[in-house]
Specification:
The structure is a single chain. The strands form 6 sheets. Strands 1, 3, 4, 6, 14, 17, 18, 19 and 20 form a 9-stranded mixed β-sheet that branches. Strands 26-23-22-30-33-32 form a 6-stranded mixed β-sheet, with no helix packed on it. Strands 11-10-9-8-12 form a 5-stranded antiparallel β-sheet. The protein has 5 domains: 132 residues, no CATH class; 81 residues, Roll (SH3 type barrels); 117 residues, no CATH class; 97 residues; 108 residues, Orthogonal Bundle (Helix Hairpins), CATH 1.10.287. Helix 6 runs antiparallel to helix 7 and helix 7 runs antiparallel to helix 8. The two termini are 83 Å apart. It is built from 8 helices and 34 strands. 24% of the residues lie in helices and 38% in strands.
């Protein structure tokens, strides 16, 4: 057996193509399928593989060939694809939807046409053609003007012509090809790949490829009976949407999602090339020579040669475009593109391969059993939705089948009766999963929430920064009532919260978002299950900026050690002295302000009385009050200065104390 690479060849197809039937199909979960076709080819015969247009990219990316014997495949051909717009650009005509005949003829000015009007035939070259709008006297009509062989220009009514014929055979062929291209783009969805072989004899050829396919689906039944372990049945749903019958094929189903992508290999690609031209040669302008004024001095220096003229504007623009394309080309070059079937591991994937041949007709689907085994499972209740008062009937399934179980819907039967449905994710062998399939009306659950105030756990002081580690304790209590006359096991899913830690309970297991606690429920009983959590808080404060009341809250906290409390008490005492000085300073400033305002009032009264005769006694009285207030103000200002100095000294002492303290 030899495996050949794909080579495109222009070998002419001269024999009837043989079809290779499908022999093997492998379906994946990420939207592609592996297909293998094989058959015998006679000498010189070609094989044909039919695909849809949207499958060709994957075919050209994955197709491989195997041939029997020493002969090799000599060529592989396929129906080319080119965008319709590019195909039609090669024709001298353009047909738009609803386009009248006059516009077509106007595009073909100079073409020779023959028009029949009953028994009369008029022939000539098209000069122009147009559509005339409708008027009150005449309906809408079309006209064409021809240059007859007699050199006469004649305008004809196209609506009266019974036929129009192009005299040029090449133009007739172009119109036929144009219409064929439009029709083909609209209706041609099938693409064929031809495999050419040599003429030396018969050989067997196998072609394998990947194409987009419908994803296979899995469906399960979990059957609880009298036995301890239930039975798990798995069914695969396969859809044949390829357009070919799968008759007695080898079928395999793969669970997993390998990387797959689409690369545009089928559509032709065109590269826009830069325009680069040499600078144009400028025509030589005439030179006018001046007359001589006398003999040239021998010491005259030779003139420097003139600078060459700048390149023409068109050449400069072409050069700029060429540089831009060259930069884009370099960027592109630097980029890189980066049922009991047999079950077995395929690296990170898992394959189910059916032992017996499978038949699925085109446009049909099939349901195939791929699993029927006992599994480890136990019945549970799950409470995860606090909006409901009832937990869910559930089961914990342990995958002891030795196979990877692909994800899908699961229907539960209990004691021969339908119990509910669930969804199960892909389950690796040895793993386990919880599924919920119904509401347990025989159990009720309520919750209560309680929390403590913030409690300070630790206090540290370093370089004037007070670090406080505190916590808040929260308790959530689940009250469970089992009204059934049978024992149950309840799994409580308690959410995991950022920054909280459990204090009193140990979960049976933990997921990314929840703790799971198991609670045993006796028949006809009630249980309380409390979950205590603590949230830690970390805060830092610049001690010099805090108020005495803030510090007092820490000094009075019994959780703080004796040495730390003593140092905080010293700081608190200093803070209180400074606060007392602040009060005295405020009072002194207030008194100074009141006296200053009263002095202003007295001065205004004195100024008013001085302008009135006989008021000297009152003026003297006000002047005495002013003198007394000045003495008081001087005393208050001295007191204020003294208080400020004392405060400054206490603050400096406090800052030194804070900087030196550490605990």
């Amino acid at each position: 057996m030899r495996r050949g690479l794909l080579v495109c060849s222009a070998v002419a197809f001269s024999a009837v193509a043989a079809e290779l039937p499908v022999r093997e199909v492998i379906l994946y979960k990420h939207g592609v399928g592996y297909f293998e076709r094989s058959g015998e080819l006679a000498a010189g015969e070609s094989a044909r593989l039919d695909f849809k247009a949207d499958q060709m990219n994957d075919v050209l990316k994955s197709l491989t060939l195997e041939t029997g014997g020493a002969d090799k495949v000599i060529g592989l051909r396929y129906d080319a694809s080119e965008p319709l717009e590019r195909k039609l650009a090669n024709y001298p005509i353009r047909l738009e939807p609803g386009q009248p005949l006059s516009r077509l003829l106007d595009q073909l000015k100079g073409a020779r046409v023959e028009l029949k009007f009953g028994a009369e035939t008029v022939a000539g070259a098209v000069v122009s053609s147009r559509a005339l709008p409708a008027t009150e006297q005449q309906p809408e009509r079309e006209q064409v003007t021809l240059l007859l062989d007699t050199a006469e220009l004649r305008t004809l009514d196209l609506s009266a012509a019974t036929s129009v014929r192009f005299a040029d055979p090449e133009l007739q062929l172009q119109l036929k090809d144009y219409l064929a291209a439009v029709s083909g783009a609209r209706s041609q969805d099938a693409r064929s790949v031809y495999i050419d072989s040599s003429d030396t004899g018969r050989r067997r050829i196998t072609a394998s490829y990947m194409i987009p396919t419908a994803v296979w689906k899995s469906s399960y039944r979990l059957i609880f009976g009298e036995a301890a372990d239930p039975t798990l049945e798995g069914w695969a749903i396969v859809d044949n949407t390829t357009g070919d019958d799968w008759t007695n094929i080898r079928l395999a189903l793969v669970s997993g999602r390998p990387i797959s992508f689409v690369t545009q290999l089928y559509e032709p690609k065109y590269v826009v090339r830069p325009v680069a031209e040499l600078p144009e040669d400028r025509a030589q302008a005439p030179v006018v020579h001046e007359g001589a004024l006398g003999g040239m001095p021998q010491e005259a220096a030779m003139a420097a040669p003139a600078a060459p003229p700048p390149p023409p504007r068109a050449a400069r623009e072409n050069l700029r475009i060429a540089k831009e394309y060259a930069a884009e080309d370099r960027a592109r070059m630097e980029s890189t593109i980066v049922a009991t079937p047999q079950a077995r591991e395929l690296g990170e994937l898992f394959e189910y391969r059916f032992d017996k041949p499978v038949t699925v007709r085109k446009s049909e689907s099939a349901m195939l059993p791929f699993l029927q085994q006992k599994v480890g499972a136990r019945k549970l209740l799950i409470y995860a939705d606090e909006s409901s008062r009832h937990p869910m009937n559930a089961a914990e399934i342990a995958n002891s089948t030795g196979k990877t179980l692909d994800g899908g819907p699961l229907t539960v039967f209990d004691s021969g009766a339908y119990a509910g449905e669930a969804l199960m994710e892909t389950l690796k062998t040895g793993d386990k999963r919880l599924i919920s399939y119904g509401v347990d009306l025989g159990s009720r659950i309520t919750t209560a929430f309680d929390s403590d105030s913030v409690r300070v756990r630790e206090v540290h002081l370093r370089r004037g920064v007070l670090t406080v580690n505190s916590s808040i304790r929260e308790v959530k209590t689940y009250t469970i009532r089992n009204v059934d006359q049978k024992a149950k096991t309840l799994v409580i899913e308690h959410p995991v919260r950022q920054g909280y830690r459990l204090l009193n309970q140990k979960p049976s297991e933990q997921t990314a978002n929840a703790y799971r606690f198991e609670v045993k429920l006796a028949p006809d009983s009630s249980e309380k299950f409390a979950i205590e959590e603590e949230r830690s808080l970390h805060n830092a404060y610049a001690l010099a900026n805090q108020t005495p009341d803030f510090l007092a809250s820490f000094v009075e906290n019994k959780e703080i050690g004796g040495e730390a409390r003593k140092q905080l008490e010293r700081i608190l005492a200093q803070k209180r002295q400074i606060a007392a000085l602040d009060n005295e300073i405020d009072q002194a400033q207030q008194q100074i302000g009141e006296l200053t305002a009263d002095q202003a009032r007295l001065r205004e009264n004195i100024a008013s009385l001085n302008r009135v005769s006989g008021q000297q006694e009152q003026v003297q009285k006000y002047a005495a009050q002013l003198a007394s207030q000045e003495s008081t103000l001087a005393s208050l200002r001295d007191r204020l200065t003294e208080l400020r100095k004392k405060k400054t000294a206490l603050e400096a002492e406090l800052n030194t104390m804070i900087e030196s303290m550490e605990f």
